[in-house]
Amino acid sequence: MDKKEELRIEKLVSERGDFVKKAIDKWYEEIPKDKLDKPIVASLGIESKIMTPKDLHKELTERISRKSVSTEQMGLLKEIISKYGDENK
Amino acid sequence: MSRLDVGVFARPDWPDGKVGNRFSYLMDYLFWIGNEVVSYARMKDFNVHELKKDDAIRSKVEDELEGADPVFFFHASHGGDNVLTGQGMSDMICCPGTFNCPKPNHEMLSDRVIYTLSCSSAKELGPAVIEANGISYIGYLPYLYISVDEGEDLDGAFKDIWEGGAKALIDGKTTGEAYNWVRRRYEYWISYWENNPGWEAPGMLWLLKEDYNNLKIFGKRDARIRSRKTIIEQEIAET
Q1: Cβ(A67)–Cβ(A61) under 8 Å?
Q2: Closest residue in chain B to residue A82, using alpha carbons only
Protein backbone atom coordinates (compact mmCIF):
# COMPACT_ATOMS: atom_id res chain seq x y z
CA MET A 1 0.00 0.00 0.00
CA ASP A 2 1.44 3.39 -0.94
CA LYS A 3 1.76 6.43 1.31
CA LYS A 4 -1.20 8.16 -0.33
CA GLU A 5 -3.50 5.26 0.53
CA GLU A 6 -2.13 5.12 4.08
CA LEU A 7 -2.91 8.81 4.50
CA ARG A 8 -6.44 8.28 3.18
CA ILE A 9 -7.06 5.48 5.67
CA GLU A 10 -5.56 7.55 8.52
CA LYS A 11 -7.80 10.46 7.56
CA LEU A 12 -10.88 8.22 7.44
CA VAL A 13 -10.07 6.73 10.86
CA SER A 14 -9.43 10.15 12.32
CA GLU A 15 -12.40 11.99 10.83
CA ARG A 16 -14.98 9.24 10.22
CA GLY A 17 -14.27 6.63 12.86
CA ASP A 18 -17.93 5.54 13.06
CA PHE A 19 -18.05 4.87 9.32
CA VAL A 20 -14.90 2.74 9.52
CA LYS A 21 -16.19 0.90 12.61
CA LYS A 22 -19.46 0.07 10.81
CA ALA A 23 -17.54 -1.41 7.88
CA ILE A 24 -15.50 -3.59 10.24
CA ASP A 25 -18.62 -4.73 12.08
CA LYS A 26 -20.35 -5.54 8.80
CA TRP A 27 -17.37 -7.69 7.75
CA TYR A 28 -17.31 -9.37 11.15
CA GLU A 29 -21.04 -10.17 11.01
CA GLU A 30 -20.53 -12.08 7.76
CA ILE A 31 -17.98 -14.46 9.25
CA PRO A 32 -19.50 -17.83 10.16
CA LYS A 33 -19.67 -18.22 13.96
CA ASP A 34 -17.58 -21.40 13.91
CA LYS A 35 -14.74 -19.48 12.23
CA LEU A 36 -14.49 -16.63 14.72
CA ASP A 37 -12.08 -18.38 17.10
CA LYS A 38 -10.05 -20.21 14.47
CA PRO A 39 -6.76 -18.63 13.32
CA ILE A 40 -6.87 -17.23 9.81
CA VAL A 41 -3.70 -15.13 9.61
CA ALA A 42 -0.08 -15.74 10.57
CA SER A 43 3.31 -14.16 10.00
CA LEU A 44 6.60 -16.02 9.85
CA GLY A 45 8.84 -13.72 11.86
CA ILE A 46 10.88 -14.51 14.93
CA GLU A 47 8.06 -12.92 16.89
CA SER A 48 5.33 -14.51 14.78
CA LYS A 49 1.68 -13.59 15.11
CA ILE A 50 -1.28 -15.91 14.69
CA MET A 51 -4.67 -14.20 14.71
CA THR A 52 -8.33 -15.20 14.62
CA PRO A 53 -11.13 -13.03 13.20
CA LYS A 54 -12.05 -12.20 16.79
CA ASP A 55 -8.46 -11.02 17.49
CA LEU A 56 -8.44 -8.90 14.33
CA HIS A 57 -11.85 -7.36 15.05
CA LYS A 58 -10.86 -6.54 18.63
CA GLU A 59 -7.55 -4.99 17.66
CA LEU A 60 -8.99 -2.94 14.80
CA THR A 61 -11.89 -1.72 16.94
CA GLU A 62 -9.58 -0.69 19.77
CA ARG A 63 -7.23 1.10 17.43
CA ILE A 64 -10.06 2.97 15.73
CA SER A 65 -11.31 4.19 19.09
CA ARG A 66 -7.78 5.45 19.78
CA LYS A 67 -7.60 6.82 16.19
CA SER A 68 -4.33 4.99 15.64
CA VAL A 69 -4.17 2.08 13.17
CA SER A 70 -0.88 0.19 12.88
CA THR A 71 0.86 0.36 9.50
CA GLU A 72 0.80 -3.45 9.49
CA GLN A 73 -3.00 -3.64 9.62
CA MET A 74 -3.78 -0.63 7.49
CA GLY A 75 -3.89 -2.91 4.46
CA LEU A 76 -6.62 -5.04 6.01
CA LEU A 77 -8.60 -1.96 6.93
CA LYS A 78 -8.33 -0.66 3.36
CA GLU A 79 -9.71 -3.94 1.98
CA ILE A 80 -12.56 -4.03 4.52
CA ILE A 81 -13.53 -0.42 3.74
CA SER A 82 -13.35 -1.09 -0.02
CA LYS A 83 -15.70 -4.04 0.31
CA TYR A 84 -18.02 -3.02 3.13
CA GLY A 85 -17.64 0.76 3.35
CA ASP A 86 -20.01 1.81 0.59
CA GLU A 87 -22.99 0.28 2.33
CA ASN A 88 -22.50 2.67 5.26
CA LYS A 89 -21.96 5.97 3.48
CA MET B 1 32.31 -23.19 -8.05
CA SER B 2 29.26 -24.64 -6.32
CA ARG B 3 27.67 -27.65 -7.97
CA LEU B 4 24.68 -27.29 -10.29
CA ASP B 5 21.74 -29.70 -9.90
CA VAL B 6 22.46 -30.01 -6.16
CA GLY B 7 20.51 -28.45 -3.30
CA VAL B 8 20.33 -28.37 0.47
CA PHE B 9 16.77 -28.16 1.74
CA ALA B 10 16.58 -26.96 5.36
CA ARG B 11 13.13 -27.71 6.69
CA PRO B 12 12.58 -27.39 10.43
CA ASP B 13 9.24 -28.42 11.92
CA TRP B 14 8.40 -28.00 15.58
CA PRO B 15 5.31 -27.08 17.56
CA ASP B 16 5.70 -23.30 17.34
CA GLY B 17 2.38 -21.44 17.27
CA LYS B 18 -0.90 -23.32 17.70
CA VAL B 19 -3.17 -23.12 14.66
CA GLY B 20 -5.47 -26.16 14.66
CA ASN B 21 -6.95 -25.89 11.18
CA ARG B 22 -5.51 -28.00 8.35
CA PHE B 23 -2.43 -28.45 10.57
CA SER B 24 -1.80 -28.18 14.29
CA TYR B 25 1.06 -25.67 14.17
CA LEU B 26 2.28 -22.85 11.96
CA MET B 27 5.52 -24.62 11.05
CA ASP B 28 3.53 -27.56 9.72
CA TYR B 29 2.33 -25.33 6.87
CA LEU B 30 5.89 -24.62 5.74
CA PHE B 31 6.79 -28.28 6.12
CA TRP B 32 3.82 -29.20 3.93
CA ILE B 33 4.94 -26.78 1.22
CA GLY B 34 8.57 -27.94 1.52
CA ASN B 35 7.49 -31.58 1.15
CA GLU B 36 6.05 -30.75 -2.25
CA VAL B 37 9.21 -28.90 -3.31
CA VAL B 38 11.49 -31.77 -2.26
CA SER B 39 9.29 -34.40 -3.96
CA TYR B 40 9.30 -32.35 -7.13
CA ALA B 41 13.08 -31.89 -6.99
CA ARG B 42 13.60 -35.66 -6.67
CA MET B 43 11.20 -36.30 -9.53
CA LYS B 44 13.26 -33.92 -11.66
CA ASP B 45 16.51 -35.74 -10.83
CA PHE B 46 17.76 -32.91 -8.67
CA ASN B 47 20.34 -34.05 -6.11
CA VAL B 48 18.50 -33.40 -2.82
CA HIS B 49 20.26 -33.06 0.53
CA GLU B 50 17.38 -32.76 2.93
CA LEU B 51 17.73 -31.59 6.51
CA LYS B 52 14.39 -31.80 8.21
CA LYS B 53 13.08 -31.39 11.75
CA ASP B 54 15.84 -32.12 14.30
CA ASP B 55 18.43 -32.24 11.50
CA ALA B 56 17.63 -28.69 10.45
CA ILE B 57 20.23 -27.13 12.71
CA ARG B 58 23.27 -24.94 12.19
CA SER B 59 26.00 -27.59 12.48
CA LYS B 60 24.32 -30.01 10.06
CA VAL B 61 23.51 -27.27 7.57
CA GLU B 62 27.13 -26.12 7.64
CA ASP B 63 28.34 -29.71 7.13
CA GLU B 64 26.01 -30.22 4.16
CA LEU B 65 26.90 -26.90 2.56
CA GLU B 66 30.58 -27.70 2.89
CA GLY B 67 30.29 -31.36 1.85
CA ALA B 68 27.72 -31.26 -0.94
CA ASP B 69 28.64 -27.74 -2.08
CA PRO B 70 25.16 -27.17 -3.56
CA VAL B 71 24.26 -24.30 -5.83
CA PHE B 72 20.79 -24.15 -4.24
CA PHE B 73 19.78 -23.50 -0.65
CA PHE B 74 16.08 -23.81 0.19
CA HIS B 75 14.85 -22.67 3.58
CA ALA B 76 11.35 -22.56 5.04
CA SER B 77 11.01 -21.39 8.64
CA HIS B 78 10.81 -18.26 10.76
CA GLY B 79 13.25 -15.48 9.95
CA GLY B 80 14.55 -12.16 11.21
CA ASP B 81 16.44 -9.22 9.71
CA ASN B 82 19.80 -11.01 9.86
CA VAL B 83 18.83 -14.59 10.60
CA LEU B 84 17.25 -17.73 9.16
CA THR B 85 16.10 -20.01 11.95
CA GLY B 86 16.42 -23.76 12.29
CA GLN B 87 14.70 -26.31 14.49
CA GLY B 88 13.15 -24.84 17.63
CA MET B 89 13.83 -21.26 16.42
CA SER B 90 17.57 -21.87 16.72
CA ASP B 91 20.03 -19.65 14.87
CA MET B 92 20.86 -21.54 11.64
CA ILE B 93 22.36 -18.88 9.36
CA CYS B 94 23.10 -15.35 10.52
CA CYS B 95 25.17 -12.26 9.79
CA PRO B 96 25.97 -9.36 12.09
CA GLY B 97 22.89 -7.17 12.54
CA THR B 98 19.70 -6.62 14.48
CA PHE B 99 19.56 -9.95 16.33
CA ASN B 100 22.44 -11.39 18.30
CA CYS B 101 24.73 -13.33 15.97
CA PRO B 102 27.83 -14.37 17.91
CA LYS B 103 29.15 -16.57 15.11
CA PRO B 104 28.23 -15.20 11.67
CA ASN B 105 28.12 -17.97 9.07
CA HIS B 106 26.38 -16.20 6.17
CA GLU B 107 29.50 -16.61 4.03
CA MET B 108 28.58 -20.30 3.80
CA LEU B 109 25.92 -19.11 1.35
CA SER B 110 28.41 -17.50 -1.02
CA ASP B 111 28.28 -18.84 -4.59
CA ARG B 112 24.74 -20.13 -4.05
CA VAL B 113 21.15 -19.31 -4.95
CA ILE B 114 18.94 -18.89 -1.87
CA TYR B 115 15.17 -19.25 -1.84
CA THR B 116 13.75 -18.62 1.61
CA LEU B 117 10.18 -18.67 2.87
CA SER B 118 10.56 -16.58 6.01
CA CYS B 119 10.08 -13.03 7.31
CA SER B 120 12.50 -10.14 7.14
CA SER B 121 15.78 -11.76 6.12
CA ALA B 122 15.89 -9.68 2.93
CA LYS B 123 16.68 -6.70 5.15
CA GLU B 124 20.20 -7.57 6.36
CA LEU B 125 20.99 -11.21 5.58
CA GLY B 126 20.11 -11.08 1.88
CA PRO B 127 22.37 -8.09 1.12
CA ALA B 128 25.15 -9.56 3.33
CA VAL B 129 25.05 -12.86 1.43
CA ILE B 130 25.29 -11.08 -1.91
CA GLU B 131 28.12 -8.94 -0.51
CA ALA B 132 29.85 -12.24 0.34
CA ASN B 133 29.56 -13.32 -3.33
CA GLY B 134 26.22 -15.08 -3.07
CA ILE B 135 24.65 -15.59 -6.51
CA SER B 136 20.99 -14.67 -5.87
CA TYR B 137 18.80 -14.26 -2.79
CA ILE B 138 15.01 -14.46 -3.00
CA GLY B 139 13.28 -13.58 0.28
CA TYR B 140 10.87 -11.17 1.97
CA LEU B 141 10.98 -7.80 3.72
CA PRO B 142 9.55 -7.00 6.19
CA TYR B 143 6.91 -9.69 6.65
CA LEU B 144 5.84 -12.95 5.08
CA TYR B 145 2.20 -13.66 5.82
CA ILE B 146 0.13 -16.77 5.26
CA SER B 147 -3.55 -17.56 5.51
CA VAL B 148 -4.00 -20.55 7.80
CA ASP B 149 -7.66 -20.92 6.89
CA GLU B 150 -8.16 -24.19 5.06
CA GLY B 151 -9.07 -24.21 1.38
CA GLU B 152 -7.57 -24.56 -2.08
CA ASP B 153 -7.90 -20.81 -2.55
CA LEU B 154 -6.94 -19.96 1.05
CA ASP B 155 -3.86 -21.67 2.54
CA GLY B 156 -3.64 -23.51 -0.80
CA ALA B 157 -3.02 -20.24 -2.64
CA PHE B 158 0.13 -19.59 -0.62
CA LYS B 159 1.30 -23.16 -1.16
CA ASP B 160 0.75 -22.72 -4.89
CA ILE B 161 2.76 -19.49 -5.04
CA TRP B 162 5.58 -20.42 -2.70
CA GLU B 163 6.29 -23.92 -3.97
CA GLY B 164 5.91 -22.68 -7.54
CA GLY B 165 8.86 -20.30 -7.20
CA ALA B 166 11.15 -23.11 -6.07
CA LYS B 167 9.79 -25.45 -8.75
CA ALA B 168 10.53 -22.83 -11.41
CA LEU B 169 14.19 -22.84 -10.35
CA ILE B 170 14.23 -26.65 -10.30
CA ASP B 171 12.77 -26.60 -13.81
CA GLY B 172 15.77 -24.62 -14.99
CA LYS B 173 14.30 -21.12 -15.01
CA THR B 174 16.65 -18.25 -14.16
CA THR B 175 16.38 -16.56 -10.78
CA GLY B 176 14.81 -13.54 -12.48
CA GLU B 177 12.27 -15.73 -14.27
CA ALA B 178 11.40 -17.55 -11.03
CA TYR B 179 11.01 -14.24 -9.21
CA ASN B 180 8.73 -12.95 -11.98
CA TRP B 181 6.74 -16.20 -11.92
CA VAL B 182 6.10 -15.73 -8.20
CA ARG B 183 5.01 -12.11 -8.78
CA ARG B 184 2.63 -13.16 -11.56
CA ARG B 185 1.18 -15.87 -9.36
CA TYR B 186 0.51 -13.35 -6.57
CA GLU B 187 -1.19 -11.17 -9.20
CA TYR B 188 -3.33 -14.12 -10.30
CA TRP B 189 -4.55 -14.80 -6.75
CA ILE B 190 -5.06 -11.10 -6.03
CA SER B 191 -7.24 -10.88 -9.13
CA TYR B 192 -9.09 -14.05 -8.06
CA TRP B 193 -9.91 -12.57 -4.66
CA GLU B 194 -10.81 -9.17 -6.09
CA ASN B 195 -13.60 -11.01 -7.90
CA ASN B 196 -14.67 -13.12 -4.93
CA PRO B 197 -17.57 -11.93 -2.79
CA GLY B 198 -16.74 -13.96 0.35
CA TRP B 199 -15.94 -12.61 3.81
CA GLU B 200 -12.44 -14.05 3.36
CA ALA B 201 -11.68 -11.62 0.51
CA PRO B 202 -10.47 -8.60 2.57
CA GLY B 203 -8.09 -10.78 4.61
CA MET B 204 -6.77 -12.67 1.59
CA LEU B 205 -6.25 -9.47 -0.42
CA TRP B 206 -4.43 -7.92 2.51
CA LEU B 207 -2.07 -10.88 2.93
CA LEU B 208 -1.45 -11.45 -0.78
CA LYS B 209 -0.77 -7.77 -1.49
CA GLU B 210 1.58 -7.51 1.50
CA ASP B 211 3.58 -10.58 0.40
CA TYR B 212 3.59 -9.35 -3.20
CA ASN B 213 5.09 -6.03 -2.13
CA ASN B 214 7.47 -7.68 0.33
CA LEU B 215 9.00 -10.16 -2.13
CA LYS B 216 12.63 -9.22 -2.88
CA ILE B 217 15.43 -10.46 -5.07
CA PHE B 218 19.12 -9.55 -4.71
CA GLY B 219 22.07 -10.50 -6.84
CA LYS B 220 21.99 -12.05 -10.30
CA ARG B 221 18.73 -12.47 -12.18
CA ASP B 222 20.18 -14.66 -14.91
CA ALA B 223 21.51 -17.44 -12.69
CA ARG B 224 20.25 -21.02 -12.89
CA ILE B 225 20.54 -23.96 -10.51
CA ARG B 226 20.33 -26.57 -13.30
CA SER B 227 23.05 -27.51 -15.72
CA ARG B 228 22.42 -26.94 -19.42
CA LYS B 229 22.76 -30.69 -19.98
CA THR B 230 19.99 -31.48 -17.47
CA ILE B 231 17.65 -28.87 -18.92
CA ILE B 232 18.09 -30.29 -22.42
CA GLU B 233 17.63 -33.88 -21.20
CA GLN B 234 14.42 -32.93 -19.40
CA GLU B 235 13.09 -31.07 -22.41
CA ILE B 236 13.72 -34.14 -24.56
CA ALA B 237 12.07 -36.43 -21.98
CA GLU B 238 8.98 -34.22 -21.87
CA THR B 239 8.48 -34.14 -25.66
Answers
A1: no
A2: B202
Helices (H) and strands (E) in chain B — how many of each? 7, 10
Task: Give the percent of chain A with pLDDT over 70.
Answer: 97
Give the domain extent around A71: 3-88
Q: What DSSP state is assigned to residue B174? A: -
Query: What is the ipTM, given to two decimal places?
Result: 0.94
Whole-number average pLDDT of chain A: 90
Q: Strand order in B83-86's β-sheet?
A: B79-80, B83-86, B90-94
Question: pLDDT tens digit string along A2-51?
Answer: 788 888 888 888 889 899 999 999 999 999 999 999 999 999 999 889 99
Domain count, chain A: 1
Interface residues on A facing B, Cβ-Cβ cutoff 8 A: 1, 27, 30-32, 35, 38-46, 48, 50, 56, 72, 75-76, 78-80, 82-84
Give Cα separations from B229 to B5, B113, B226, B233, B234 (angstroms).
10, 19, 8, 6, 9
The CATH fold of domain B3-222: Rossmann fold (3.40.50)
Question: What CA–CA distance (Å, rounded) separates A35 from A87?
Answer: 24
Contact B78 A39 (CB under 8 A): no
